[in-house]
Specification:
2 domains; alpha/beta; three-stranded mixed β-sheet; about 500 residues; 12 strands; Alkaline Phosphatase, subunit A; nine-stranded mixed β-sheet
Length: about 500
């Protein structure tokens, strides 16, 4: 095998496919290619040309083992498989086990390929190159890219129709615990509880202090609610026949997992809505947008370059670029991402990115209510969900999510931090409601504000931590009322829309 062919093989193996799939700006692509492709290719050329006599040495085989491992890792996304390695050593925390497993896989891959090349020499290089090159082509042209995401999500058909004088907003705050929850009654939650109650009262909401969910799982709680299933006594039946993803009844696993985890197959709430014009703002957990009445679909887009971020987000563009590299699931990108997250970048992938772009989300919702022709605006946001990300001043602090991974078993710390998060959520909602009022959109807007389950922190207090939920309704200029009945959000949702 001549040196020119070896140079071509190495240059092809070094191609970073993810750069062409991430929706990056032109100057970003140029800089990245210069740093991680052109410079390494020149180094590769120098190394190949350096060996004048005996090309096939141990060092040469080891060098090519590194290149092959790099290419296979980049294009097969090996990181997505490492958690299948049994944790025989009971390594804790989980993140340490994953990264230790990834390091083991990476080093094992280098050694295996090295010995393979030592045995089969240039024939081994040709065989491995065929596998690596096919993986590169598949990676370049598969659907895990910005164009596919934009095509399937963030759709606005701008259909012909009249602005609706009265609109409904259903706003689901994922994992936001209820008013009388374990978290609210914790020492760190007393002021937050009072703040939530004052916020709801001042905004003329009728709310339920002891509302709860039939399930602590989003994939059970919301499909039951949207299909008006609310009987406590039938929860096991519901789970078995309606929300078990293998039954593919109300919900099923999405084959396009790159977009969302699950597809909602049945939605009686949308079916029964008196109109054919629904706007959906969703997250990666459940896809609501396949319903025929949905005319506008917006989902947090990790490829988007023009988000407005909350104060405190570090190096926004670099954070986005490194996060998009990590999205391709290579071991190397995960290690780089993890190291840089200590001080230099934040994670812009969902659900992290949804929290740091919360103000942008609610600005989009405001514009939809003001200008959109849809009469129903349905929002399910992970802005209120873990991982944690706010400091006491409601500035974004990505280190809090890393702290959470280290303190998974510390209920006290998690509860205190959760109450910081809930306090900041109310601040964002308050600003959103104020803007609606200032633009004369408030009085005619009906709002159903709820959560799908609790904050899920204290297993010892399962009912009040895992199930306690928020449920509040604002209708016109009706004055606020408070109910202390212990009722499920599924029943309250049914009662509001069907009775």
């Amino acid at each position: 095998m001549n040196k020119n062919l070896l140079f071509i093989i190495g240059s092809l193996l070094l191609i970073p496919a993810w750069v062409f799939k991430g929706g990056l700006k032109s100057h970003e692509i140029f800089i990245i290619l210069f740093l991680i492709y052109l410079i390494p290719s020149l180094i590769h050329l120098y190394i190949v040309k350096k060996y004048k006599k005996n090309l096939y040495t141990k060092l040469f085989y080891f060098y090519f083992a590194l290149i092959f491992t790099y290419s296979l890792d980049q294009n097969y996304g090996i990181m997505s498989y490492v958690d299948r390695i049994p944790n025989f050593l009971n390594i804790k925390p989980y993140a340490l086990y994953v990264y230790a497993s990834a390091f083991f896989v990476l080093t094992s891959g280098i050694l295996i390929i090295f010995f393979y090349l030592r045995i089969f020499k240039y024939n081994g290089i040709k065989i491995l190159f065929s596998f690596a090159f096919i993986a590169l082509l598949v990676n370049l042209f598969d659907n895990r890219n910005s164009s596919f995401f934009e095509k399937k999500r963030n759709i606005n058909s701008f259909y012909e129709g009249n602005l609706q004088p009265k609109k409904k907003l259903v706003l689901i705050l994922d994992e936001f615990s209820g008013i009388n929850s374990y978290e609210s009654n914790h020492i760190s939650g007393i002021k937050v509880k009072k703040k939530i109650e004052n916020f709801l009262t001042n905004s003329n909401f009728t709310y339920y202090t002891n509302a709860y969910s039939l399930s602590s799982s989003t994939s059970t709680s919301i499909p039951l609610m949207l299909n008006f299933k609310y009987e406590n006594s039938k929860i096991q039946f519901y789970r078995k026949y309606y929300t078990d993803v293998t039954q593919r009844n109300f919900i099923e696993i999405n084959k396009d997992f790159f977009l969302t985890d699950n597809n909602l197959n049945k939605n009686e709430f949308f079916d029964s809505y008196n109109g054919n014009n629904i706007a959906v703002f969703q997250n990666m957990s459940i896809n609501y947008c396949a319903h025929y009445k949905v005319k506008t679909c917006v989902q947090y887009n990790p490829f988007r370059t023009d988000y407005n971020y909350l104060p405190g987000v570090k190096n926004k563009n670099l954070s986005r670029i490194i996060s998009l590299w990590k999205l391709q699931s290579s071991i190397l990108s995960n290690f780089v991402w993890r190291i840089l997250r200590i001080k230099i970048i934040d994670n812009t992938l969902p659900p992290y990115g949804e929290k740091m772009t919360a103000s942008h989300l609610f600005e989009d919702i405001f514009k939809q209510i003001k200008n959109g022709k849809e009469g129903l605006v349905f929002v399910h946001t992970l802005f209120s969900h873990k991982p944690y990300g706010f400091d006491e001043n409601c500035y974004y602090d990505g280190s809090r999510s890393m702290d959470m991974n280290q303190k998974k078993s510390l209920v006290e710390w998690k509860t205190s931090q959760n109450n910081i998060e809930r306090n900041c959520v109310i601040d964002v909602l308050n600003n959103f409601f104020d803007k609606l009022k200032k633009n004369n959109l408030w009085n005619d807007l009906e709002i159903i504000l709820l959560s799908d389950h609790g904050s899920r922190i204290s297993k010892e207090n399962f009912a009040t931590s895992y199930l306690s939920s928020l449920f509040a309704v604002k209708q016109g200029d009706r004055r606020s009322e408070v109910f202390h009945d212990k009722l499920s959000i599924q029943y309250l949702f049914f009662k509001h829309f069907k009775q």
